[in-house]
Design brief:
Layout (H helix, E strand, L loop, with lengths): L1 E4 L13 H10 L4 E7 L2 E6 H17 L7 E5 L4 H12 L3 E5 L5 H10 L2 E6 L8 H6 L6 E4 L4 H8 L5 H8 L7 E6 L9 E5 H14 L1 H4 L5 E4 L6 H12 L3 E4 L6 H8 L3 E4 L1 H18 L1 H23 L4 H21 L6 E4 L6 H10 L2 E6 L9 E2 L12 E2 L4 E4 L4 E5 L11 H7 L6 E9 L5 E6 L4 E2 L5 E2 L1 H9 L4 E7 L6 E7 L4 H7 L7 H4 L3 H15 L8 E6 L19 H7 L1 H7 L2
Parallel strand pairs: 2-11, 4-5, 4-6, 6-7, 10-11, 12-13, 13-14, 24-25
Antiparallel strand pairs: 1-17, 2-3, 8-9, 14-15, 15-16, 17-18, 18-19, 19-20, 21-22, 23-24
Helix pairs in contact: 2-3, 2-6, 8-10, 12-13, 12-18, 13-14, 13-15, 17-20
Length: about 600
């Protein structure tokens, strides 16, 4: 067992709650442009004083509506400005926020608001994919609903006009650091989602650590970020709280389809995203170049190889003169255009939720965007380890953040400890006991290793290890990550439990497919025909061969099947944070799996 504990560089949180950070920001810099709002393609700023005033007025409205301290209030919505106002207003009213993904099924929504005893919900009537009223009717304690887009925040402010500032202040300070700030329900790759109790102290400790650890993000002139990840996820939520704490201007992008346009107009200095976003940008750029002409395709491929080589040379401490010249040439031809597509000012990004991979990490650093890959879970308030600009090892998820302990059990499981570890699962003592050791370490369920310098690498999921009929243990994550990095592949599920060899279920990337077919002179045809097209299968086989280079022969994919549909959130095969619901895929495609071993 290898253990690495880091001495905290911050004092323990002794009092207060997350709302103190807004009060502190107002006191020291009331004119700071906290948030930018987009209206008709124009961005206008809201100062810290204006944001605080709006939050306080909405909180008074919630109090006037009869909400009591400790009540749970849900937010079922896309990422948007109103989400942020509602979240802080809930806290100012002494209540607890329960975020729900807008893509959640009716059964999931009903379960969450029932299990957490939600009494009120903010939601988007036109965006939710299910009828909210019938769900609410099944949960009698859910007595109030507020619809974003119907001037509901202004209406709440009017209702709270008679609530005094002193009454609001009494409610604002009622929650201490050990009280729940939010119940975040895990996506649930199996079974019902569990509500993670994240306290005010968890959030404050994590945010203070992050702000101090990455001055390259927070302590720069006119720092800003565009949040497009779901605020229902702990990652996006933590970053938002950290940005307000660290005086970084926030913008919101509710529509992922408009992301590139919004990046161009907002011009952030910092981004947060999951690896799939970075894969899409790279694969889309490559496909676009190859579709334009064979010459442009070759230029992009050489530019990408040069960016990776340049970044790898930085790790070795020496960049040759010839590589510098090539890098400078491609910076003018390719890299500057990619940076411009992301707004032109972005220098850093944090990636989490899944493995980024060394190839993408080196590529983006080579074009001038340093991606800080990190690791954490909902139960650890997102961040536990993080690569820093001053301590960067591409391919790892960084070292433990100050105040965090990390250790590896004899079976390879990663255990974490620190002030950011949650208070337990809501209404589920059995699950809490199972997740925690007797001496306070959280069992992550992930498999990993700590190297000699203290950098953590994730190698798989403890419960997802495949044991072949020959007794070989195979972690599917490495193969799946390598395959998803190929432009033609959208999703991949490695199979082979109790089977003679490893197989894979693969789906094609519908966005990139037209360009890939054109670049390889393959005629466009219905998906049913493409699945058996020998040229398409050859491209997939090439990707499989490349992925197999990362593992031993006994771990390599021997056969694959291309599925006729993608694995998405909408069809239930992906969780909202893009994790594969492996048990459901294996269940529904059992026939395809058996065909691999016929």
């Amino acid at each position: 067992m290898r253990e690495l504990s880091v001495v905290a560089n911050i004092p323990p949180v002794s009092s207060g709650n997350v709302t103190d950070q807004i009060e502190d920001l107002f006191a020291r810099n009331p004119e700071f442009p906290s948030i930018s709002i987009q209206t008709d393609d124009e961005w206008s700023t809201i100062t810290a004083a204006q944001f605080r005033s709006q939050v306080r007025n909405v909180a008074k409205g919630l109090i006037a509506e009869g909400l009591q301290a400790g009540d749970r209030v849900a937010i079922l919505s896309r990422t948007r400005f109103e989400w942020t106002v509602a979240d802080y207003a809930i806290w100012y009213a002494g209540c607890v926020t329960v975020p729900i993904y807008e893509t959640s099924s009716p059964e999931q929504v009903e379960w969450i608001i029932s299990d957490s005893h939600v009494v009120a919900t903010f939601f988007e009537a036109k965006r939710t994919t299910h009828a909210f009223t019938p769900i609410a009717a099944k949960v009698p304690h859910m007595t109030r609903s507020y619809i974003f887009g119907d001037d509901v925040l202004a209406e709440l402010a009017i209702k709270g006009a008679n609530v005094s500032d002193s009454d609001l202040e009494s409610r604002r300070i009622i929650a201490g650091p050990n009280e729940p700030a939010t119940l975040i329900y895990t996506s649930g790759t199996t079974g019902q989602p569990k509500g993670c109790i994240v306290t005010h102290g968890n959030l404050m400790a994590e945010v203070d650590t992050l702000v101090k650890a990455v001055p390259e993000v927070f302590d720069v002139p006119d720092a800003s970020t565009l949040i497009f990840l779901p605020l229902a996820h702990v990652f996006g939520r933590l970053i938002q709280v950290a940005m307000l704490r660290g005086e970084v201007t926030i913008g919101h992008c509710p529509n992922p389809a408009a992301l590139l346009k919004d990046l161009g107009s907002f011009k952030p200095t910092f981004l947060l995203a999951v690896p799939r976003v970075f894969e899409k940008v790279f694969n889309g750029s490559a496909a676009k170049a190859h579709e334009a002409s064979p010459v442009k395709g070759k230029i992009f491929d050489r530019a990408a190889a040069t960016a990776i080589a340049y970044s790898e040379a930085l790790d070795h401490g020496h960049v040759s003169a010839g590589l510098k010249i090539k890098h400078g040439l491609f910076d003018k031809l390719v890299y500057s255009k990619l940076r411009h597509a992301m707004g032109g000012r972005v220098t850093h990004a944090i990636s989490g939720g899944a493995a980024l991979g060394s190839r993408l990490g080196h590529f983006y650093r080579g074009i001038g965007l340093i991606i800080l890959e990190g690791y954490g879970l909902t139960e650890t308030t997102a961040g536990s380890t993080l690569n820093l600009p001053s301590a960067l090892k591409i391919g790892s998820v960084g070292r433990p953040l100050p105040g965090t302990g990390a250790r590896i059990e004899s079976d390879g499981e990663i255990l974490l400890k620190g002030p950011h570890v949650f208070a337990g699962y809501w209404n589920n003592d059995a699950a809490t006991s199972e997740a925690m050791t007797t001496d306070g370490w959280f069992r992550t369920g992930d498999i990993g290793e700590l190297d000699g310098e203290g950098y953590l690498r994730i190698t798989g999921r403890k419960k997802e290890l495949i044991v072949t009929a020959g007794g070989k243990n195979v972690a599917p994550a490495l193969l799946e990550d390598r395959l998803r990095a190929n432009p033609i592949i959208s999703q991949c599920v490695v199979v082979g439990d109790n089977k003679p060899y490893i197989g894979a279920l693969i789906t094609l990337d519908q966005d990139a497919l037209p360009q890939i077919l054109a670049a390889n002179n393959i005629e466009v045809a219905p998906m049913s025909e493409l699945l058996e097209n020998s040229d398409v299968r050859a491209l997939v086989q090439k990707a499989v061969n490349a992925a197999n280079e990362s593992v031993s022969n006994s771990e390599a994919i021997k056969k694959f099947v291309i599925l006729p549909e993608d694995l998405t959130i909408d069809n239930g095969y992906l969780t909202p944070k893009m994790s594969i619901r492996r048990h459901l895929v294996v269940q529904d495609f059992a026939g395809d799996i058996e065909a691999l071993y016929a």
